[in-house]
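Dear Dr. H.,

I hope your travels went smoothly. While you were away I took the liberty of generating a structure for the chain from your last submission, since the lab meeting agenda had it listed for discussion. I wanted you to have the full record in hand beforehand rather than looking at slides cold. The sequence, exactly as received, is reproduced here:
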Amino acid sequence: MLCRYIVQNEGMATNDDTNITRVLFCGPYFPPSHIYTKEYLQNYPFIQVDDVPLADVPKCIGNYHLCVVKSMQLNSNVISRAKRMKLIIQYGVGLEGHCQFICPFPINLELFLVVIYMCFFFLNRYLCAFRYTFYNALLILLLLKLITFPYLSLHKGVDIDAATNCGIKVARIPGDVTGNAASCAEMAIYLMLGLLRKQNEMQIAVKQKKLGEPIGETLLGKTVYIMGFGNIGVHLAKRLRPFGVKIIATKRSWASHTDVSSQSNALPVENGIIDDLVDEKGIHEDSHKFASKANIVVCCLILNKETVGIVNRSFISSMKEGSLLVNIARGGILDYEAVAHYLECGHLGGLGIDVAWTEPFNPDDPILKFNNVIITPHVAGVTKHSYRSMAKVVGDVALQLHAGTPLTGIEFVN
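The corresponding predicted structure, in token form, is as follows:
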């Protein structure tokens, strides 16, 4: 059954194979991405669009010219099989896939398990007559890589170096031109308001036929810390201004900021810096100081080795007691154990997340027992406007790839 459409076509019409440009969408998640792209390209029979189950991608990827990665993790092994591939693109801006926390010490998972194996072996070799049963079972599982530690490794979505070595370009779709950044900014405000007005408690009150409770809070007068002032951060600040809030923000370098300045609805820019949107600017090293000033912290950071787990115990403890934490970036930015701890003790006033540590998120996860937690299923950027805009970009790129013309509308990362 694997990739039966491609197998049949290769067996039936190999002479026409060079006249077809094949587009691969990895996995079933975010279905509007491939549905809208298929609709956009329906009048171009020489472009074939397929959505393939994640487990089947390694076996099929060699038949495709363009890969839309979505949440798939494309490592060097998978990429090495993509013999016809010209371009790997993300349906959006993130190329890191679904990440997990890295180990706080610099060793990989396999080495960590080997060390544990050896230590326990030598410590207990004289204490247990059946020691080999346990240790050999552990070693077998290690070799088969059936043991996973959710908070010990960071998995990249796309191995960009491997793609580069194979002559494959890697790109993403800028969020400011498709409406993706605007959609994410709106979701951040939705989560803020839901926490402030106690959305979950309101639902309970409705079911209990109560009126006039719970009592909530307003955005008016609050200080909002935007952690990562890229495209999403800019659009968020623009939309927050009318709420009467104080906006503070950090980013790596303010001098390099030129976001959305070329658009017709561009924000006011002076000398490359967004003007009149931020009351206080800082760099990433100021994050703890800024967190201590804010009533609401919104994470808009790109996930990489510097930012993974950056919202940890130290960071959350620096936040005001009762302040709210919102994450619309990537789940791996938040340290799960730290978030759970500060929700439990009451220091964290609420958590609103559109992205989780593992996705799809476990609906029985203990963190969902708190009434002041709101989670949405990674839909911040999933709107008809943004997805149809991105479908047009992917469709146009497929047509350009087929015609052999320069690829436009995307941002290359290699």
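Two observations you may find useful: The CA atoms of residues 57 and 155 lie 17 Å apart. The chain has three domains: 4-98+153-174+384-412, 109-144, 180-375.

With kind regards,
E. W.
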